[in-house]
Amino acid sequence: MTLETVKRAENGDGWIVRVYEGEQCRRKAVTVTFGQAVERAVECNLLEEATGVVNIIDGPRLTFPIGPYDVKTFRVWFE
Prior knowledge:
The radius of gyration is 12 Å and the shape is globular. By secondary structure, the chain is mainly β. The strands form 2 sheets. It has a 5-stranded antiparallel beta sheet, with no helix packed on it. It has a 3-stranded antiparallel beta sheet with strand order 3-7-6, with no helix packed on it. Helices cover 0% and strands 61% of the residues. β6 and β7 form a beta hairpin. It has no helices and 8 strands. The chain has strands at 2-8, 15-20, 27-33, 38-44, 50-53, 55-57, 61-66, 71-78.
C-alpha cells in the first residue's frame, strides 16, 4: 500500500488522505498512523464527497480494508 496524497480539503474543512494498493493483494486491515489524534474521519470519493465512515483506533490511527489495485480517499479532522 502507498500513501499517495496528503493535502488540505478543497473546501478547507479537514485534510484529504489518499492511499492505493499497487499490487494484486487484498488486505483486511491497513492502518495509517498520524502524528496527532484524529477527531473524526470519513471515506470519500475522488470529488471529496463523503461515502462512509472509518474506524479510528487509539487516537492517531485509521484502519480499513483495501482490495487489489484499489484507491481509498479519506477526509480527516484532527483534534
